[in-house]
Amino acid sequence: MAIRSTGYWVVRVAALGLIGTTGITAEMNLTLVTEFFLIAFTECPEWALPLFLLFLFMYLITLLGNLGMIILICVDRRLHTPMYLLLSHLSFMDICYSSVTVPQMLAMLLEHRAALSYTRCAAQFFLFTFFGSIDCYLLALMAYDCYLAVCQPLLYVTNMTQQARLSLVAGAYVAGLFSALVRTVSAFTLSFCGANEIDFIFCDLPPLLKLACGDSYTQEVVIVVFAIFVISASMVVILVSYLFIIVAIMRIPSAGSQAKTFSTCTSHLTAVSLFFGTLIFLYLRGNLGQSSEKNQVVSVLYTEVIPMLNPLIYSLRNKEVKEALRKFLNRVKLS
């Protein structure tokens, strides 16, 4: 049975006369949480159904849009380029980390809270961290790909061979796996006792740290260092790549050519700004132990809104994707 409080066990042991006052204190300290309850957005039950319908609609659009992007890239040979290969993996990651959190959030809204076992909470945290870390690395690789295409166009085909592309993607997955393992082990070697209600939409780091008891300084340092490394390392690659891109564009004599060249990167810049902006707000602003309504809204932004918008961002301003989509729809109509 999941332990939600220490009261039952203290009374039970005291009644048996097995321990004294000091023993009761020790027993209370050793009574650990084995189940968590997600309670975000449950303070106003009248909003549960509207929020459920809204989030369900957004989740279905996320699945449809990202799956459609993957299929489009697979079936259209003109999109078999390094940038679109990375984009297909980004769409796959968006599907994965949305699916890790959103179905649980929908169940929470219907039932007014959702119970998660300790193991299931740890698994959810691991998977979300894994997919989120890969997302960071893929966005960095896409920036590097833009840099090669704009700054070294003559060497682009030589540098971005099929083997190089697969190695970069594999490296992103391995780095994401390592980061997720370290952060999950560090987070769940903490002791969680007493309260077990998480005022958040899934088992994430800020609310978990709020429930930790005992000395957790070492684990928190490891977790924060790895979070900072993943985000800052990816942002450094992106910023340096775009610095060289801007310098290269400024050397182009024609203003029209400058605008045309830079327009190829605007979709990626938009996605980067949305994704890293929310991560920095939630994880790197010095209040990891807090969980507020503002944090809940931001978490919905990067678990639902950004994955839903990414296919639109990369298709509305991309002539190749729009042309491929038009031909694909025509082919479907004819069949």
Describe the structure.
There is one protein chain. This protein is mainly alpha-helical and 335 residues long. It has one domain: Rhodopsin 7-helix transmembrane proteins (Rhopdopsin 7-helix transmembrane proteins). It contains twelve helices and five strands. The strands form two sheets. Strands 2-1-4 form a three-stranded mixed sheet. Helix 3 runs antiparallel to helix 4, helix 4 packs antiparallel against helix 11 and helix 5 runs parallel beside helix 9. The longest helix is centred in the middle third of the chain and has 34 residues. The chain starts with 6 loop residues before the first helix and ends with a helix.
Any descriptors?
75% helix; 3-stranded mixed beta sheet; single chain; 5 strands; Rhopdopsin 7-helix transmembrane proteins; 335 residues; disordered N terminus; 12 helices; mainly alpha
CATH fold-level name: Rhopdopsin 7-helix transmembrane proteins
Q: Which CATH top level class fits? A: Mainly Alpha
The CATH architecture would be Up-down Bundle
Distance between the termini: 56 Å
Q: Assign a percent range to the helix content.
A: over 70%
Structural class: mainly alpha
Number of domains: 1
Instruction: Give me the Rg, rounded.
Output: 24 Å
The average pLDDT is: 82
For the largest sheet, list the strands in their spatial order. Answer: 2-1-4
Question: Would you count the extended β strands for me?
Answer: 5
Give a short account of the largest sheet.
3 strands, mixed
Low-confidence stretches: 1-30, 287-291
Principal-axes geometry comes out as globular
SSE string: HHEHHEHHHEEHEHHHH
Question: Beta fraction of the residues?
Answer: under 5%
Number of separate helices: 12
